[in-house]
Structure formats: structure tokens, C-alpha cells
Amino acid sequence: MSTDINRSWQLSGFGLSRLKPAEGKVPEPGPHDLLVRNRAVSLNYKDKLIVDGTLIPDLAFPYVPTSDAVGEVVAVGSAVSRFKVGQRVLGQVIADWPDGDAPPVLHKHTLGSSLPGMLSDYVLFGEDAAVSAPPSLSDVEAATLPIAALTAWFALAEATKPIAGQTVLIQGTGGVSLFALQFAAAFGLRAIVTSSSDEKLGRAKQLGAWQVINYRTQPAWDEAALDLTDGLGVNHVLEMVGGDNARRSINALGADGRLSIIGLLGSMELSFPILPFMRNRIVVQGLSIGHRRAFERMNQAIEALALKPVIDKVYGFDQVPRAFEHLEKGPFGKIVIAGS
Ligand SMILES: NC(=O)c1ccc[n+]([C@@H]2O[C@H](COP(=O)([O-])OP(=O)(O)OC[C@H]3O[C@@H](n4cnc5c(N)ncnc54)[C@H](OP(=O)(O)O)[C@@H]3O)[C@@H](O)[C@H]2O)c1
């Protein structure tokens, strides 16, 4: 590949049919930037919402989507001190959130939304918005971490602390949910996983699920979760769906339960009754991926636990539309784009 041509996939308007290959120049790193040659990119559900125009209706075109990538540092700006050429790095998606409280305006500097996305041969990361990739993971595996794994990690290990033996209900078997299942199992939490597919639930069991519920054949999955916990209710629910689904999530929670609002797979709104919040002293927390310090802690844990991300399928750089079509169907774990 020529070093001065940067291949990308660019949106010229909303809709997958308007996502097309494009060529541009390799960007020049500013004083605090890393120039990174991408090795693998992973897709998240929100990339579909951006491509179809739901998430950012006023997006400016042309636009390169996606947020998660692993690559090699090939050049550094004159003032860079945190990384060297040759290191393998991951982008910190909320680029201006190193630790602690969120920046005053969250998502002002976010990869793949307010900042350019990752579907290019070469991308720039600010040196403060990158972390070393876990050495034990392949490029394809490492590319899955920046949003899906960090969101799951933040919900289970940063926003609250895991207590072995407690129960967590995880909805679906997509990217965030399977990382949540793997972390939960590693922490000794008892994970109840819901899915539309018995076959996927069988695989979730192999990954360490304590109990499983098919939400298609058992639409009253909240009652099933209450039965599984002897009527007490679960300690923590990861809400991935929204709408009326959240009503069931609240019903499935026990005293001092926690509801982590993560996803909007079914609706852009939530609806639930107020009384159970008071009766059970329920804590609700909205999640927004996580900060860099949490990313570094998570990567350390991934090494210590020898955790391997679950990859549904890998597509080539020339197969990006097919990868997005797969995402629409509901993956088991992650979809990755790697190779030319
Ligand atoms: N707040 C944040 O920081 C944050 C970060 C990442 C993602 N998210 C959001 O979290 C959600 C999941 O993201 P993702 O990237 O992990 O998605 P994904 O990988 O595309 O996951 C899709 C999976 O969701 C499951 N699903 C769909 N409808 C469901 C329902 N009604 N009940 C239970 N499961 C259902 C399906 O699992 P089965 O096939 O097993 O049924 C499907 O495979 C999205 O809404 C995304 O926007 C938020």
C-alpha cells in the first residue's frame, strides 16, 4: 500500500447505500498526536444508528463512521511522550475523559461521532486518548474493546463494585452483553442471560451464564428471573432495550437493586412505574462508555483473567457493507473488520 494514500469508507448521506470507499491523504500528526495505521476495526450497534441517521440527525458529510480500532503507531508528533513508534494502541473513545468525573460537556470529543471515525487505513489519536492494547489479544480481539468491553466493565466494576454471589441480569447476546457475561462470571457474579435464541443461550451457558431465559418464548422474563432468585429479585439489571422492557427490568430487581441504563435496542425512551423505585430503593445509573483509567484497569484485568473477546465474524476492509448488514441481524458478540 502506498504510504500517502489513505483508504476510507465514507458516508455521503444517511443509509448504508451511501457508505462508499474513498481515498484521501494520510493525516499529519499535530504535536500531541499519534499517527496510527489501523489493523482492525470493530462495529457497535450505535454505528448502525449513526449510518441510518437516528443517532446524529445533523451529522456533517462526508463522514467516516465507527469508533473502535487497534493499530500500530507509525509516527508521533513533536511533543508526544506517552507512546513510541511501533507500539500497538487502542483509541479512548471519549477522548477528553482521562479519569474521574466526566468532562463538563460529555461527547464534545468522541471518536466516531464528534471526531472522525476509524474506517480508514490511517487515523490520528491524541496521545492522551490512547491506551496500549493488551498483549495477549490478537488485533481482531483487541479491536472489540474500546466501547463494548469498556461499557460492560464500567457498569460492573467502576460504577459499582462486584460482590461475588450477587445476581446480574444481562439482556441479549450482543457485544456489550457478552463482555458483561464474561466479566460477571470472572467476578463470581451469578449472571442470568436473556436471548431470543435457545442456541445462543446454550453458548452463553458455556461462557459462564448461571441461568438463561429465552425472552421470545418467555416474554414474562422478569417473572422467570424472580422465580430463579426464589422471589427475591436480582441485584443488578443491565438495561439494553428501553421502552416497556424497562418495566420488566424494574420488576425483576430486588431490594437495593441497581438498574444500569445502557442500550436502546428497542426504543429511544424508557417507561416504568415509580412505586417500585421507592419500595425497593432502586438506584438508576445511565452509562456512557467509560474513562481512560477504567480502560487501563480493564486491560490489566483482561490480561490477568486471560479473557478472550467473543468474535462472531471477521470481514475484510472491502466487505464493510456486509459487516453492517450482519450487525443489523444481531450478532453473538462482536463483528470485526480486518485485512485488506
Ligand atoms: N451507554 C453506552 O455507553 C453504550 C455503549 C455501548 C452500547 N450501547 C447500547 O447498548 C445496546 C447494545 O449495543 P451492542 O453494540 O452490544 O449491540 P449488538 O452487539 O448489536 O447486540 C445486539 C443484540 O441485542 C439483543 N437484543 C435485541 N433486542 C433485544 C431485546 N428486546 N431484548 C434483549 N436483547 C435484545 C440481541 O440478542 P439475542 O440475539 O441474543 O436476542 C442482539 O444480538 C445498543 O442499544 C447500544 O446503542 C450503549
TrEMBL record:
Residues 15-337 form the Enoyl reductase (ER) domain. SMART domains: PKS_ER. SUPFAM superfamilies: GroES-like, NAD(P)-binding Rossmann-fold domains. PANTHER family: PTHR45033, ZINC-TYPE ALCOHOL DEHYDROGENASE-LIKE PROTEIN C1773.06C (PTHR45033:SF2). This is NAD(P)-dependent alcohol dehydrogenase. It comes from Mesorhizobium shangrilense.
